[in-house]
């Protein structure tokens, strides 16, 4: 299956995204507009997926592996989604903003 990809440069700094990392990774640092639903919780929490005005929902994890699985599964469910190429590591490397629940934000 071909996984739709989007590069971090194509995602707005304040874009609504889906972050499928674990809680400790999220707490360490995440995109300001992201919605957190860990990959394992996704099937039970589809009603929490954010609506996007642009149509396509960007999905991210640490480096792109888990989010690729999420995109494959969500695509099969009929959602318009794309994997953020390189994940949050690429987001941080590109100098994109990070928010943290406490302390200094960094990608874990």
Automatic annotation (TrEMBL):
Signal peptide range in chain numbering: none
Domain of life the protein comes from: Bacteria
PROSITE patterns the UniProt entry points to: RHODANESE_3
Domain Rhodanese: from-to ranges: 11-100
Family annotation (SUPFAM superfamilies): Rhodanese/Cell cycle control phosphatase
CDD domains: RHOD
InterPro entries: GlpE_sulfurtransferase, Rhodanese-like_dom, Rhodanese-like_dom_sf
Protein name: Rhodanese-like domain-containing protein
Organism for this UniProt entry: Pedococcus aerophilus
